[in-house]
């Protein structure tokens, strides 16, 4: 048996390590070939990529405007996308730098649910378009244009500022008409189909490349400088302002924005989070349909719990043994029992736009840690205010690592963050309106923070329930989990037997994979 197998963007893993993790490494091993095939396709389309750039920027002839694609070693690979740096020379004293970003279909459940790539991209560009109107105070990269896949007829759109004068004039008149008739806001993006050689086989977005002259990723200096009080507080102030700006306009539903082919953005997509996408891609059956939004916090939380129930039932290595299986079932029983406590509309607060995947690599700062740009608008959703909290990574630990002395450390930094948030909220509102900071305080004091993290994380549920939501119950004790697990479903013992059989089958397939 080979000692390791290759994985995408991770170190090779041994069988001994893989079998002790709850990730499906059979699925993950398949990403290696899928990634190479995606790169091969992009290499074949270099000329089309150049045509796409020229199309959206409305460039002059090739001899006056030269488009250069960066060498492959400079391409930037993320969890869900590849970013291709592009440089345009001509027509300006300095080169124009852009990023062409293409989503990975094999990371976005496209094979299981065709159209998911376009759903995800429509949500993302919808946020860009909405923020351009509603949050001009938040610095984000300029979105030049984008194109959907063939699932949406390969529709292409360009920002009106890069279109001819007559197109801009028509768009201004359309926007005025929409406003007078009280239609949904018309975005700045106009339909702009290209010739066949200006199309790609994949969906894409074309963005401004934010360079070091503007700022660098917070993650570059986070570990070594996060103990410096002045820097940290400047960061907290910048994050608070971003969160408050997004929350300035209360939303009517729990959901995500979606960009439509008529240029309108509406809050009519399901709340699409990073965790939902990762789990669906890994095989979890879809529970919340694309066009389902929620006005009830209780209904949303209930559907999220059903989604995690489906995850447990469908995941082949969700449980390693009898006690582990019963523990996961018991945790779900506890969360169902607590559902009413944390979904009361008065406690959950208003519905606000939130960055559900905010992390140090998405935040650009200057040398003093002033926030200068937000560079990733994936996974933005309208959610209950109670789900808004101090980022869990403020002490450099994972959500499931904030226990014991690390919890004390986190609470100290959390209070510092909330104090600054409260100051910024008071300045922004003049002391009036619904207090978001009070909702955040209440969510922490009641344990709601841990409830919401439990149902929105990929795999932290059991630990969070055990350590934070019922620490005095000692949920990990076999006699406790054995009793509680029986309330999760009819014939709970049959589920235990089924999950153990699935784990043994997964183990056999994993050994076979290592033997190939």
TrEMBL record:
Source organism, top-level taxon: Eukaryota
Name recorded for this polypeptide: Aminoglycoside phosphotransferase domain-containing protein
Species classification: Eukaryota, Fungi, Dikarya, Ascomycota, Pezizomycotina
Organism: Lasiosphaeria ovina
InterPro entries: AGP_Transferase, Aminoglycoside_PTrfase, Kinase-like_dom_sf
Domain Aminoglycoside phosphotransferase intervals: 226-381
Transmembrane segments: none
